[in-house]
Amino acid sequence: MRDNDQFAALVLAADRGDQDPVARYTGAACKAYAPVCGKPMVIRVLDALSGCNKIKSILLCGPPESLLSACGELKQRIENKQVDWVKNLDSPARSAVHGLSQIDMHQRILLTTADHALLTPEIVEYFLQASRNLECDATVGIIRYETLQDRYGNARRTVIRLRDGNFCGCNLFTFNSRGRTLVDFWQQAEALRKRPWKLINRVLGWRAVWSYLTGRLTLDQALQEVSEKTGVQVRPVILPFPEAGIDVDKVEDLQLVKSVLAKAISTHPPV
C-alpha cells in the first residue's frame, strides 16, 4: 500500500487516573488499563489499529509517564517502537493538539480514544476507506441509534435526534492538514455532547437550535454549518457496526463490553 493511502493513528489515553469510576471499580492505575476479558482496554485499541493495513503508525497521548510501568505490555510496545508515546496535557483538546504537533503536517490522521474497547480492524478499515472515498478535509464516524439498539437494546448512549435519524458518536475522526484545525472545535462539541441543544447553539448558532428544537435539522445541514463556519469540509461516515458506538465511560459500559467480548470469544475461541 502506498504511504499516501495510509493514516497515522493518534490515540488519546488520558483520564482522571485512579479517580475515574472505571479505574476505581477495576483497581486499575487508570481507565485505559482497565482489563476486559484479560486484556487492558488500551491494548485492545492498539491491536485493532495495528491489525489494519491502512495504519502507518500509532502515537499514544497519555497515560502519564509515571503510570507506564503499571502496564507491562504497553511499556514493552513503547520500548520496542511498536507504539510511540507522548505525554498528555491538562485537557483532551490540548492533548490532541500536542499529539498532532508530533505528526507530519501532510500525514492524514485517524483520531480515536483508548476506551474504545470494542474497536476492531474491520471497523477501522471500513471507516478509513469510507473517509478516503469522501475526499474531504475531515470525517466523523457515527452510527444510527437503531443500529445500536437492535443489537444491544440495553446500551445507554447519548443520542442526537435529527430530522433524518437518531445518531450516536463513535470517537472516530479523520483529518487532513486543513482538517486538523477542527480538533479544538470537536473538543468543544464533545464537552457539550450530553446537552444536544447547547451543543448545537454553541457550534452552529441559534437558527440551527431552532431547526433542531422543531425537528427540522438534518445531519447534512448540521455538518454544512460546521463547514461554512470553519472553512473545513466535514462529512459523516455512518458505520454499520453497533460496537463502534460503544466506549467505556461508566462501569455499566464496562460490563456491557465484557459481555460482548465474552460472547464473541465463546463463539470464536482463539486457535
UniProtKB/TrEMBL annotation:
InterPro entries listed in its UniProt record: MobA-like_NTP_Trfase, Nucleotide-diphossugar_trans
One GO MF term: nucleotidyltransferase activity
Keyword Magnesium (UniProt): yes
Pfam families: NTP_transf_3
Domain of life: Bacteria
Record has Magnesium as a keyword: yes
Domain MobA-like NTP transferase: 9-141
Transmembrane feature ranges: none
Record keywords, A-Z: Magnesium
Record-given protein name: MobA-like NTP transferase domain-containing protein
